[in-house]
Amino acid sequence: MDILRPALININGRIYRKNLIKEEHYEDEEEEDFSYSGPVTDQCMDEPCDTNNIEQTEKGFRCAIDVPSVLYKYIIGKKGETRKRLESDTKTSISIPKQGVEGQIVITGPQKSAVASALTRVEVLIESFRRKQPFTHFLSFALNHPQVQEGFQRFKEEVLEHCSQDGGVDDTIFQNPAKLHLTIGTLALLNEQEVMRACELLQQCQDFIRDTTEGKPLALEVRGIEYMNDDPSMVDVLYAKVSPQDGSDKLQQIADRLVEHFVAAGLMVREWERVKLHATVMNTLFRKDPSAEDKGGSGRQNMKDREAFDARNVLEMFGEFNFGACELNSVQLSQRFSSDCTGYYCSSGHVTFS
């Protein structure tokens, strides 16, 4: 990270600079320090802003915030050092539930400004380490329609017939046809409450989705492939391209509005200015490692060890491959690494176009 241009974090409309400092608090991680960079108003001179959630008690002031249990360790720190430093710096007491028990982190102190300061620091820590959690769910348009699945199966067979000698190409890096989908965005939902909140947010999008589609399914053509890096001889992911048959941008509008809604709610991080609608057909993360399976592992490669493949011949021979057409009629909130009775990902919630 460029120390002259530190990353910014937006929490409830306030902007913070994220300054990296190396400490021995977590194994294989660097703790991050933060400073508030928002505008200073008269209201904020004596005490931090946004103190509405702080209540007065007989002994001073108190604030309780909901935090997923998987994030407790980042507030506690190694041997409790992070919590001790927060309490010492802000002259407050921070109570954290036992690990694995969902509950609230409670901050108490003699002064409202002290509790507000501790609350801000805890919120920034939570937001920072939340971004490091692997995604658990994703929003998508399912593409596992019979015609598209058949087209994908043809694509796989023909690629293996003509390109199996190319570096890194084998049958394990192809997508499961039952799980073909267009990714809209990913989410790290860290407890059941956050899953329920995401489902509620998706339901709130029902009206604008139906207004956009005029209550009708969207006819879609899946044709052509592309990659996102700059070297076709070293590719990790190959995508199928999609386009609405009516030539409209309704699908793009829906995807962009969904991401905007979930980003505003703090459950999704914006990766692109506009959603890059793509259907993964080949991914080196799917590659099976026989040696790992022999040792009792899953056989799947991780990000660090993944082996790229040479896609030059695939792109040349199948650049305009026709996977088929289908009609989209819903948006799914799906759970990663899951399967339902149809072979698609287990759905936590969905809304329909009609």
TrEMBL record:
It comes from the Eukaryota. Residues 59-127 form the K Homology domain. Keywords: RNA-binding. One of its GO terms (molecular function) is RNA binding. Pfam families: AKAP7_NLS (PF10469), KH_1 (PF00013). GO terms for cellular component: nucleus. Coiled coil: none annotated. GO terms for biological process: DNA alkylation repair; regulation of DNA-templated transcription. PANTHER family: ACTIVATING SIGNAL COINTEGRATOR 1 COMPLEX SUBUNIT 1. This is Activating signal cointegrator 1 complex subunit 1. The gene is ASCC1.
